[in-house]
Amino acid sequence: MVSYLRQNPRMMGVLFTLILLLSQAGSVAAGTAGYIYGP
User: Fold this and answer.
1) Which InterPro entries does the UniProt record give (predicted)?
2) How far apart are CA 33 and CA 27, in angstroms?
């Protein structure tokens, strides 16, 4: 994996952006699922 990223430095930015978006989406999903009202 490290050698692949050394050969393709643009993919490092793509992976960073993808991880950033996934972490934001996870926190949004966790925030909206916290309110469950019922008996």
Assistant:
1) DUF7503
2) 10
Question: Cα separations (Å) of 22 from 17, 26, 31?
Answer: 9, 6, 14
pLDDT beyond 90 at 33: no
Q: Which residues contact 12 (CB under 8 A, 6 or more apart)?
A: 5
Task: Examine the pLDDT at 39 and tell me if it is beyond 80.
Answer: no
Domain boundaries, the chain: 2-33
Q: 31 φ, ψ to 5°?
A: -70, -35
* Longest CA–CA separation in the chain, Å: 57
